């Protein structure tokens, strides 16, 4: 039952990735991992954590479904019949290059000592170039999968180490010749599919640029924005800026009464006299003289003229208040310490991190110990 619920959460997270909601997807994956730990959810979490920053480098634009305008013959079209898919000779040559590659580094066009940033740049460029929605050359889908699988393996430190150590070039070459409708290079499989990786990088859509994607009976090709479209976009941005300015002024008017109340409260506090005591050393307020309550021995600090103002019944009443405040402070601090220790232990179990487990086990609850001693002293134990 827990496994099924976990799988359902993972599927919902994948839908969120396709719509560009990475934070929501990450939240669902954490819930799935907590409910039923599995490598699938963990791999997606790691991929989003490592590559999530790349998604913010370009916003998304909606796809446009329509007909290709007549007379737009900038790109050569291959294929026959009304349902032919359009692609360029350059795209065909690009697919052939990917098929001839013998290792993951060659696929991405990087050296064996490439950094994570180099891998990201290479993947972004190739993924946009070979995505099936933009490249309809024969074998482009397999090339796109090979690019995604290459990056997913090389961006994972453990998989990259194993690949550098055990990757067999000859086996991979043989696999490349036989992988027509399957992923290239199955010797080292990634935990994240190429489509999921693309969604993590780009939020499920193509980043904003000067290229628009059109679809005609299953065929896709690129078309440059016209000046009229740019003017329309600029006009929309100007209108949106005006609306934001109006909304900001309206929000300020709504918050004005609250700001006035805050100002009055601050002035009142500045005019109020300093408190007669503090549980902590506060030289700025003149509370530097250390004392202890007569009943429970609770430490507190007062100013130099304290003994002249508080004696007898007034002192006993004040120290009773001090002891109550100190107990409340210890209770709150004890709860926070326990919560922190529990969180560390849960994280250690979730990520199988022995260092976090040891840190949680060795963490001392000092405020809880002080609270227990104080309560025991209050009961006369």
In brief:
It is a single-pass membrane protein. This protein has 15 helices and five strands.
What does this structure look like?
It is a single-pass membrane protein. This is DnaJ-like protein subfamily C member 18 isoform X1. It is found in: Endoplasmic reticulum membrane. With 381 residues, the protein is mainly alpha-helical. Helices cover 60% and strands 6% of the residues. The chain is built from 15 helices and 5 strands. It has a 3-stranded mixed β-sheet with strand order 1-2-3, with no helix packed on it. The chain is elongated. The chain starts with a helix and ends with a helix. Mean pLDDT is 76; it is low at 53-84, 168-188 and 208-226.
Which strand order spans the largest sheet, edge to edge or round the barrel? 1-2-3
Broad shape: elongated
Looking at how many chains there are and whether they match, the oligomeric state comes to: single chain
Range of helix content: 55-70%
Beta-strand residue percentage: 5-15%
């Amino acid at each position: 039952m827990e496994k099924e619920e976990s799988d359902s959460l993972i599927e919902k997270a994948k839908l969120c990735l396709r719509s560009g909601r990475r934070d929501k997807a990450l939240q669902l994956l954490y819930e799935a991992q907590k409910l039923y730990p599995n490598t699938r959810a963990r791999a997606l979490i790691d991929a989003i954590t490592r590559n999530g920053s790349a998604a913010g480098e370009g916003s998304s634009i909606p796809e446009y479904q329509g007909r290709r305008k007549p007379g737009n013959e900038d790109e050569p079209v291959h294929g026959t019949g009304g349902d032919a898919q359009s692609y360029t000779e350059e795209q065909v040559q690009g697919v052939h290059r990917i098929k001839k590659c013998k290792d993951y580094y060659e696929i991405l066009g990087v050296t064996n000592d490439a950094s994570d940033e180099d891998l990201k740049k290479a993947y972004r460029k190739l993924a946009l170039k070979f995505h099936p929605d933009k490249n309809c050359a024969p074998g482009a889908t397999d090339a796109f999968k090979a690019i995604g699988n290459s990056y997913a393996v090389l961006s994972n430190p453990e998989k990259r180490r194993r690949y550098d150590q055990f990757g067999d070039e000859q086996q991979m070459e043989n696999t490349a010749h036989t992988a027509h409708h399957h992923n290239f290079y199955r010797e080292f499989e990634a935990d994240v599919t190429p489509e999921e990786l693309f969604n993590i990088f780009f939020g499920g859509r193509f980043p904003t640029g000067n290229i628009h994607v059109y679809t005609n009976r299953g065929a896709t090709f690129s078309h440059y924005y016209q000046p009229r479209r740019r003017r329309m976009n600029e006009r929309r941005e100007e209108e949106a800026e005006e609306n934001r300015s109006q909304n900001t002024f309206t929000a300020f008017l709504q918050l004005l009464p609250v700001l006035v109340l805050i100002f009055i409260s601050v002035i009142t506090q500045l005019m109020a006299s300093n408190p007669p005591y503090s549980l902590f050393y506060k030289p700025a307020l003149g509370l530097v003289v250390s004392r202890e309550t007569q009943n429970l021995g609770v430490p507190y600090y007062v100013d130099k003229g304290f003994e002249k103002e508080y004696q007898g019944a007034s002192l006993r009443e004040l120290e009773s208040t001090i002891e109550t405040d100190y107990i409340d402070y210890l209770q709150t601090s004890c709860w926070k310490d326990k919560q922190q220790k529990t969180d560390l232990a849960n994280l250690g179990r979730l990520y199988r991190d022995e260092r976090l487990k040891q840190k949680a086990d060795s963490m001392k609850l000092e405020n809880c110990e002080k609270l227990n001693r104080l309560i025991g002293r209050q009961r006369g134990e």
